[in-house]
Amino acid sequence: MATIIIRQMTVQDIDQVIEIEMSSFGVPWTKDVFYKELTENPYAIYFVIEKQGTILGYCGLWVVIDEASITNIAILPKYRGKKYGRALFQYVLNQSIALGAQTLSLEVRISNIVAQNMYRRFGLIPGGIRKNYYTDDNEDALVMWVKL
């Protein structure tokens, strides 16, 4: 079995990450947004999960003082359901703790029950609703969080 590597994202990864972004979100981030996150945002840290040089997924994290927030997480569609998302999320949780975060939060589509169930396995609980959060279809977001 090929080795899975989870590591910090670099600007050289953006082209592969954009492919994941385009196949995962109705309103994908642009290359420029990722570039600015990696080079200009002092609170941001992004991670990729790769196998044999192919990036299978990525996750963005902001850590401000002692609060961590997942900005986005996605796995290439053909690799979903194979526990790569779970491995990546566990890694990012561990990194959040190592960076001094005491809580972690994220937003997830109300309709994305698969993701919600995964987050619950890590102890995240619902904390509220952000009405009309997603700009592509005005779907509400469920805010979930966990004390680390």
UniProtKB/TrEMBL annotation:
- Entry's PROSITE patterns? GNAT
Database matches in InterPro entries: AcTrfase_RimI/Ard1, Acyl_CoA_acyltransferase, GNAT_dom, N-term/lysine_N-AcTrnsfr
The family database entries (SUPFAM superfamilies) matched by this protein are listed as: Acyl-CoA N-acyltransferases (Nat) (SSF55729)
The chain positions of domain N-acetyltransferase read 4-148
Q: Which UniProt keywords apply?
A: Acyltransferase, Cytoplasm, Transferase
Subcellular location(s) per record = Cytoplasm
EC number per UniProt:
2.3.1.266
Q: Which GO terms describe its cellular component?
A: cytoplasm
Q: Kindly state which reaction or reactions the protein catalyses.
A: N-terminal L-alanyl-[ribosomal protein bS18] + acetyl-CoA = N-terminal N(alpha)-acetyl-L-alanyl-[ribosomal protein bS18] + CoA + H(+)
What superkingdom does the record give? Answer: Bacteria
UniProt-recorded Gene Ontology molecular function terms: protein-N-terminal-alanine acetyltransferase activity
Q: Which family does it belong to?
A: Belongs to the acetyltransferase family. RimI subfamily.
Q: What does this protein do?
A: Acetylates the N-terminal alanine of ribosomal protein bS18.
Q: Which NCBIfam families match?
A: rimI (TIGR01575)
Q: What is this protein called?
A: [Ribosomal protein bS18]-alanine N-acetyltransferase
Q: Which organism is it from?
A: Aquibacillus halophilus
